Amino acid sequence: MNRGREYLDPEERRKLESTTDTLDHEIAKIKRIRLQAPPHALFQTFAHLVITNDLDKITEFGAYLNDWKQKRRAPLLDAKLTLRKELDALVEGQEATHSTRVADLRSELAALQKKIDEIDVSTDSFWLELMLWHEMERIGARHGLREIHDRLTFSASKTAYLGWVKNGNPVHFLH
């Protein structure tokens, strides 16, 4: 049985390490830029709702957000279903003549899934972002919640969040 190589030649290893180093530098650069980016306007709106502790308005915000998301997701999900059906039909046939089409479909599906993930936001996403901004302040990476609004504090956020949970709103702890 031919299992192939389980090691890299020195030259291959150097190329791979060089590529990895380049990607690491690019990731670090993007992280630095992200740390300097101002808070998004929608996030600032959500923060204002948290400050006022108006749970009805936060619920309404979530409903509008969900409507926005569903309008954009529906056509993407339809396209995904169409591509998956075509892919399944080709894979079941296992014909070598379709191998390039299978690869193209998989690539299209990956790109489509990326678009779906980009618009997959909810009220939970905003609560999580609020928690992350607080954590960034704790570790000294950003100015934190006051960078979003000068009256936004951890205690105001905590009070609003606990009220949100006690009001019976669904909470997803795993993201």
Could you write a compact summary of the structure shown?
The protein is mainly alpha-helical and 175 residues long.
Features of this protein?
175 residues, mainly alpha, 7 helices, 75% helix
Task: Give the helix/strand layout.
Layout: H1 10-36, H2 41-52, H3 55-93, H4 99-118, H5 123-138, H6 145-148, H7 154-166
How would you explain this protein's 3D organization?
- By secondary structure, the protein is an all-alpha fold.
- The chain has one domain.
- 75% of the residues lie in helices and 0% in strands.
- The chain has helices spanning 10-36, 41-52, 55-93, 99-118, 123-138, 145-148, 154-166.
- Helix 3 runs antiparallel to helix 4.
- It is flat, with a radius of gyration of 23 Å.
- The protein starts with 9 loop residues before the first helix and ends in a 9-residue tail after the last helix.
- The model has no long low-confidence stretch (mean pLDDT 87).
- Residues 1-20 are annotated as: Disordered.
Structural class: mainly alpha
Helix content: over 70%
Averaged pLDDT:
87
Query: What characteristic shape results from the CA principal axes?
Result: flat
Rg, rounded, reads: 23 Å
Low-confidence stretches: none
The DSSP helix count reads 7
Number of strands: 0
Strand content: under 5%
Order of helices and strands: HHHHHHH
Span of the ends, CA to CA: 42 Å
Give the number of domains: 1
Major beta sheet, specifics? none
